[in-house]
Structure formats: C-alpha cells, structure tokens
C-alpha cells in the first residue's frame, strides 16, 4: 500500500466518482436541528436577492448593444428566448434546492448525482460565474460612477480609474498605462464587509436597493411608452445582412446568447437555501419569481428603448439614458444613471454572497482549506471567507478591464446550468422515492430542453472563450488532484 510521506500512514485511496447521498448531505449540514447558518430570509427577501442578482449591466447596457449589432427591435425576442432557456434551468434549480436545501447550490447537487470530480468541476466553474462575475459588474459599476462624478464636475485621476491591463486606446483610459481601478475595488470591499457583518443586515440593504432600481425601471417603461414611434419598429426584425447573426432571425438567436449574461444571478437564490426560513417553500418562490419578474421588465425596457429612438443609435455605454434623453426630459437620464448604479450594486452583492456559500460547501467537504467553512460566532456568516473572497475579487476588478473579465463568465455559468439539469434527470431515475417538496414539471423534457438550450448558447461563443475555459479547467483539475481529492478521502 502507498504510504503517506508526512505521517507514515497508508495514503488515502482516491475515488473520483464517489457520491454523497441526499440524507448524508442533509445530516452533515445539521438541518435536523436548524442548520449552521442563521435562518433570516423569507420569500420576499429571496425574491429580492434574485432580482438584485439579475437586473444590472444587462438591462442598462446589453439592450442597446444587441439591438444595434444583432437584432434591432427584435432584441425583445432575444430577451424572451434567453428567459425561456433560463426558465427550464430555474425549474430544475427549484426542485434541487427544495430537495437539498444547503449552501452549495450546483456544486452540492452534482456531488449527490454525478460524483466528486464533477462536483469539483462545477464548483470551479462557479468561480467564473460568481467571482469573476462580481469583478466584471464592479468594473461596470465604476464606469457609471465615474460618469456620475463627471456630471457633477468631479474627475478622478484616470490612472486610478483605469485597470492596469486595460487597452490605453479606449476612451477614458489613462494615457500610457493605468495603475488600478480604485472605485471598482472599493465597492467590492465595501459590499464584502457588509455581507460579513450579517445576512439580515445585507438583506435589508439589498431589499432597499432592489426597490430603488425596480422603481427606476418601471418609470422608464411607463414614462417612455408615450414617446414610442412605431416607425422605429418597422421592420421589427431587420433583414439579415447575409451573415449569420447579423440581423434577421439568426441575429435574434445570436442576441439571445449575448443577453443571456443579463440573467446570470437568479441561481444565487439557491446558495441561500440554508439561510431561508422555510427553504422547501421559499427558495422555489425566490428563483422562479425573480426570473419571471425580470424577464417581463427586460422585454418592456427593450421595447421602449427601440421604440423611442432608432436601434442604430443604441450602441453606446448608456443606451437607456440615450433613449430617455430623446424624450426631451433631461432629468430622466439622471434617473437612469441612479438606477444603473443601484442595479449594479445589488448584482455585485448577490454574486459575492453566492461565491462564499459555494466555497463554504467545498471547504466543508475538504476540497478547499477549512478557513472557508468557518462561521463567525456572532454573525453566523462565513466572515473570513467573505473578506478573503472580497479581497481577491477587488484585485481582479482593479487590474483587469471588463472585456477580459466578461468573456469567461457566460461559459462557466452555462456549463453549470447544464449539469444542474442533468442532476435532476439522474435523481429522478436513481432515487424516485425521495420526497420532493417542489417537483419540476414536464420530466424528462424540461431538463432536456435546459441542457440543449445551454449547449446551444455555449456553441455560439467564440473559440477563444473555449480555449480559456480549457486552461481554467486544467488548472482546477490539477488543484483537485494534488489537494482536493486527497483531503476529501482523509476526511
């Protein structure tokens, strides 16, 4: 037998496909006596967490980009198609979150179905969604923040608002090299400290900001609808230019793969299952409710923006503000900027929250250092993990520009979503006797549609993104082989 060189004891046997039963997962998290975390979140707070994770850069930026470059007014259909694809995934998430109401989200679900190595892969993928996603949105937040300050006559030194690795030829970048995007890093650190302070406190802050940005979105829709010129909607789906993805229905499909980024965040609700008051009831409400509300709002804003001005004018950083400026009401542009800042703030909050809860479960299983599973004795939050994760995300947000960060977020998220749908199929077949407080309808077609939707959207991403994903996964598998797989067996 192979010896452990540090202790002289027999080395642990690796079992890459070991699974944890649902009963074992529930027992390890002490759900029978209330769980490790403080249960502070009800259905309203969970729905607000989901909305906070969804409404952000997508609705305030991608609406114009997709309309101008790919779909024209048909961006409305792009949002609807992306929302439909997410609906399949949301139903699967809801079933698993109600069945296994613990903090690990897709990581834990995969451990119970496909086995340990796939659980590691999905956990490593979720770093792309939550960690790099938070950094990406923080850079967008800093851009809006700098524009607001500029409108007030305040201009920060460009070297401290430009990432070190940013292209100096971009508008607003520092001459030569930037040093560090300080506003992006500071907002991440501030929200990390708020999350470390307590789930109840951060939830109240999130609920307030969600209320603000929902009010802004509704004002845009109801104010802008009276300024719609139907001539801007003709044709609603512009004729294809002869190249796939450039207008026509292929452009609508290409647009759906791009605006999918807008929906990233609804699954953060599942990471809060262990902090929900009644997770079997409240988590499905939060997941499905937040997705449904945001899809309706996305479609409404896209229709108003492309109806008020020509879609050809919307390829700008603040397309909704441009549309509102066209109404002649200058104050509406300020309303939109405030809504954008509020929206981006809660997206960062939700993604940082989700990242530490996934790390908590991975560390609890021994795949990561135990510090990530340590809860604060008073706040009942993974406070140390929250600060460490916040510091790493802040560094990424300060050093890297948005065009480098956002390329990896969608593909990591889509692969995680596909595995969640597969987990539902597996458990329905392997353990049909389990009590499921929420059951996804249309089995097996709903998860099958979810898998194929995710794969189709992944296929629309450029080859460079796939290469970066393979490099990222190779690094993750090396870490798993030399650390995680040994630690889990020693446990």
TrEMBL record:
Q: Which residues span the membrane?
A: 46-68, 74-94, 106-124, 174-196, 208-228, 248-266, 287-311, 331-353, 383-402, 408-428, 440-460, 466-483
Per the record's keyword annotation, is S-adenosyl-L-methionine included, yes or no?
A: no
Q: Which UniProt keywords apply?
A: Membrane, Transmembrane, Transmembrane helix, Transport
Bilayer topology: Multi-pass membrane protein
| Highest taxon listed in the record's lineage | Bacteria
Q: Which Pfam family name is an example for this entry?
A: AA_permease_2
Give the signal peptide range: none
GO cellular component: a single term? membrane
Q: Which GO terms describe its molecular function?
A: amino acid transmembrane transporter activity
Where does this chain mainly localize?
Answer: membrane
Give the subcellular location.
Answer: Membrane
Query: What's the protein here called?
Result: Amino acid permease
């Amino acid at each position: 037998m192979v010896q452990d060189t540090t202790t002289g004891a027999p080395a642990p046997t690796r079992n890459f496909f070991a699974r944890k039963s649902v009963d074992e997962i529930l027992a390890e998290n002490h759900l029978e006596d209330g769980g490790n975390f403080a249960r502070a979140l009800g259905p309203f707070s969970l729905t607000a967490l989901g909305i906070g994770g969804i409404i952000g850069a997508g609705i305030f930026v991608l609406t114009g980009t997709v309309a101008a470059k790919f779909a024209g007014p048909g961006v409305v259909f792009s949002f609807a198609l992306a929302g439909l694809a997410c609906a399949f995934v949301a139903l699967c998430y809801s079933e698993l979150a109600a069945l296994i109401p613990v903090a690990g989200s897709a990581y834990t679900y995969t451990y119970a179905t496909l086995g340990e190595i796939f659980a590691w892969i999905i956990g490593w993928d979720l770093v792309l969604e939550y960690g790099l996603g938070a950094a990406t949105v923080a850079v967008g937040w800093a851009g809006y923040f700098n524009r607001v300050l500029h409108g007030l006559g305040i201009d920060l030194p460009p070297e401290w608002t430009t990432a070190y690795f940013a292209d100096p030829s971009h508008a607003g970048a520092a001459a030569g090299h930037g040093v560090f995007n300080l506003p992006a890093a500071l907002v991440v650190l501030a929200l990390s400290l708020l999350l470390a302070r307590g789930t109840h406190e951060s939830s109240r802050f999130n609920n307030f900001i969600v209320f603000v940005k929902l009010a802004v979105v509704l004002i845009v829709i109801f104010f802008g609808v009276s300024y719609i010129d139907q001539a801007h909607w003709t044709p609603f789906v512009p004729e294809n230019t002869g190249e796939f993805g450039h207008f026509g229905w292929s452009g609508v499909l290409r647009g759906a793969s791009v605006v999918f980024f807008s929906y990233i965040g609804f699954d953060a609700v599942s990471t809060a299952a262990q902090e929900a008051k009644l997770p079997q009831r409240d988590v499905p409400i939060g997941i499905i409710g937040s997705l449904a509300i945001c899809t309706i709002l996305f479609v409404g804003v896209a229709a108003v923006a492309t109806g008020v001005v020509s879609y050809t004018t919307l390829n700008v950083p603040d397309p909704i503000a441009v549309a509102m400026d066209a109404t002649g009401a200058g104050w509406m542009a300020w309303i939109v900027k405030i809504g954008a800042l509020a929206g981006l703030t809660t997206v960062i909050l939700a993604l940082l929250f989700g990242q530490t809860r996934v790390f908590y479960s991975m560390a609890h299983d021994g795949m990561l250092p135990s510090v990530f599973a340590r809860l604060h004795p008073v706040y009942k939050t993974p406070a140390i993990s929250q600060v460490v994760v916040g510091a790493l995300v802040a560094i990424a947000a300060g050093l890297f520009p948005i065009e480098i960060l956002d390329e990896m977020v969608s593909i990591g998220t889509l692969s995680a979503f596909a595995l969640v749908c597969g987990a539902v199929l597996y458990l329905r077949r392997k353990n049909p006797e389990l009590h499921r407080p929420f059951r996804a309808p249309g089995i097996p077609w709903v998860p099958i549609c979810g898998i194929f939707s995710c794969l189709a959207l992944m296929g629309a991403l450029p080859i460079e993104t796939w290469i970066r994903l393979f490099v990222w996964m190779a690094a993750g598998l090396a870490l798993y082989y030399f650390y995680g797989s040994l630690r889990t067996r020693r446990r």
